[in-house]
Amino acid sequence: MATPAVFQHIDHPGDASVAVLYSRAVGRPVGWLMLPVMVGALVQALQGAPIFPEAFVAAVGALLVASGWTHFQLRNRVVEIRLTGHRIALRTAFDVARDAPVTWEPLLRAKRQRAGLHLYVGDRTLHLDPNDWPAYSRLKTAVRPDDAPEQARVCPY
């Protein structure tokens, strides 16, 4: 197999470990989810109501949701694309950080759109925004997008 072309997203973790990657990614969701908890605790405190049972349960719930959301994002956001011929490997942030083996799939189609490029790989479609991929022009050239207009499909019934 020829040496694959590797393209990295702006959020590519580089050599960071899974722990570092997770700690960098969890901050924003924790902040957004703890904001309503803190506002609710402030309102209860200003009204003279006890805050500890509700605020504690809400904070634990917010941390669990933030942790779950971060885990979901790290396992699903594609940050690295490897191309060789008509084969493609999509690697998530979690795959890159733990150095998971590369899984090759057939690249079914690449279609150029106004706002980027659509890659059809297996049963999923990946939208690539030019602002998120530093080597977007090389990536676009490597996948050889289909510039033909989409054929209108007419149902015979």
Automatic annotation (TrEMBL):
Transmembrane segments: 30-49, 55-72
Top-rank taxon: Bacteria
Keyword annotations: Membrane, Transmembrane, Transmembrane helix
Keyword check for Transmembrane: yes
Name of this chain's protein: DUF304 domain-containing protein
